[in-house]
Amino acid sequence: MCEVLPSLSGRLLDWYDTHARELPWRVPPSRSGAEIRQDPYRVWLSEVMLQQTTVAAVKDYFRAFTTRWPDVNALASAEDADVMGEWAGLGYYARARNLLKCARIVSSDFGGIFPSQRDELQKLPGIGPYTSAAIAAIAFGQPETVVDGNVERVMARLYAVTTPLPAAKPELTNLAAGLTPDLRAGDYAQAVMDLGATVCTPRNPACGICPINDACIGQRKGIAASLPKKSPKLPKPIRLGYAYIAQREDGAFLLERRPPSGLLGGMLGWPGSDWSENPDEAPPFPSDWQPLPEEVRHTFTHFHLRLKIHVVHVSLRSQPGIGEFIRKEDFRPSDLPTVMRKAYDLVSRLGNDV
Length: 354
Ligand code: SF4
Hints:
By secondary structure, the protein is α+β, with helices and mostly antiparallel strands.
């Protein structure tokens, strides 16, 4: 098969056949192709989870999701709160909301079968240019070019592209497209990603064992490790906020579900202020709120957050008029997004009987 492919692609495929990473969502190259096709549901789910997140962080979530919801119809029937709870800690919660929307559309409008063409996939919620290419190539063998950070790094080094990212993206995509074969496009996409993840690594590329080192211009010029160049990032602004943790005398916690859109949309959280330069410090209801001496620090994509925590114990008759009390036996910190869990951990550590 490889004789008809461009030589670099063929060599990468040969390398992939023996060095592919074992990943819970992946059909190994020895069994892919005519024998066993990749399951589009598992490809889609893994690719959505992998957006902005590492393979190591995703593995356990992927196993939990596919155990609980083994196919797209099962996921489409799930309760929103269950999916958001299972997603908690993975971050970028708009992905989970779009995941559910997408599952429901595929289940209701497509009979539970994902479309195979990239342009059709891209019409579905949460599926952008990268994810549509990945699903089309990996699940359906379409000759689409998949470009993630690993692929960008390999292309920048292979062709010694010194234009900094993100300006270099179109050029790197074109170079990657020029190598994409018509056959085994899905395996090829995964081969380049695996090469970037395991050999052509960000800091110390292992050029000595690289299957395409004789063609690598970056290596020949001695500049591979410095590529890709990146435009300097602007420092992230710091935002402030307040969170209020109320515990009833029976141990129940007052929690609120956040609005469906926006940061942490649809997730459970502690009542609190907006997050800005000058947040409104007013508590959600009048009580004997006590500030904690430490604050929670958390970094989002676009800003650092410093969250000041106030705590209070209230009576069984307390009716704050917001959120709802979750009984202590029903409360699972793992259902909270990371920043909210950090607040809970801080209160626990500081011994406020929470
Ligand atoms: Fe990356 Fe080195 Fe291989 Fe070039 S030779 S692609 S720099 S690992």
